[in-house]
Description:
By secondary structure, the protein is α+β, with helices and mostly antiparallel strands. It folds into three domains: 23-146, no CATH class; 167-226 and 327-414, no CATH class; 231-299, no CATH class.
Amino acid sequence: xxxxxxxxxxxxxxxxxxxxxxxxxxxxxxxxxxxxxxxxxxxxxxxxxxxxxxxxxxxxxxxxxxxxxxxxxxxxxxxxxxxxxxxxxxxxxxxxxxxxxxxxxxxxxxxxxxxxxxxxxxxxxxxxxxxxxxxxxxxxxxxxxxxxxxxxxxxxxxxxxxxxxxxxxxxxxxxxxxxxxxxxxxxxxxxxxxxxxxxxxxxxxxxxxxxxxxxxxxxxxxxxxxxxxxxxxxxxxxxxxxxxxxxxxxxxxxxxxxxxxxxxxxxxxxxxxxxxxxxxxxxxxxxxxxxxxxxxxxxxxxxxxxxxxxxxxxxxxxxxxxxxxxxxxxxxxxxxxxxxxxxxxxxxxxxxxxxxxxxxxxxxxxxxxxxxxxxxxxxxxxxxxxxxxxxxxxxxxxxxxxxxxxxxxxxxxxxxxx
Length: 418
């Protein structure tokens, strides 16, 4: 049985000139051209397969899948189930949304009322027509059974067509690379579908409390605020930066801890500061409260230095370098939030792009290189989630950091940081 051409006997005279959007479509195209259907199916089994769903049903019945079937005159009966690899998705549309599943899922859920044919990337040179009903479906379904690597794993996927490869948008998108490369999603997909419309909405609701446009806007503003990072973390790190600048480099941890105590005790007596409203004096702080603050920040200093020691062992920091700021923790997530909002249809493509560009600009003001940025992001993530367990909150970042620093196609090797 032939799976490539339409069932009506259509055969292209010669392979068309084509620039595949990603390595996925290239692998499909090449496998189809040489008639290697085992390789074609293996590529599908290792890829997200997106399909259109009804937005009204997704909003009212979030636990159910309601696919939109389409028509192709080349197929007997006309009805098909169109599926798309990531590089072949259309730009996000307010009225047209997509979900995704793995190849094996389509074989498992098929019902007699579904179309008899699945069409992969309709109309493209890597298009293929797959019989969706058993027993014919067993040929391609077996490829899904042999797939043993998770789809959501750290790997670089680049849109060669349809995604920016350099310039301010690419730079802003690369600020979110730790998040998107971690899951194997295209790092430069500005026109983002990502985890699919239902999952993007669910994840924003569960992780961020975002259920609508205004909440998304508020979160986006918070993440792009240059003063939005944790003030205690930034106080400790900025104090070390000042000491390093004044004394020419390395800062002894005990000296850093002592400096924390000196500065906080000095501030406890009240400070005269210049504010937008004029010169004011801050109130004094009770001694017990001051000592509690000192103890807390000194403990934080210990946590930071222990994380940095591990960072050096795992290649995140070089030599005696240290983390200057955790602003990247916000700016990297701001880049992600822009795309998540677009995937959930809480913003337009233009709004998402503007936020991505600002994330890149803000990062360039705080850091000098992708490696500096990465260390700041990972430290922020660990201080927020990991609690020195060095569990998956940390190890996931180590894995994706290695990929981003070593893969020749990584944006951290192809896109200038500034």
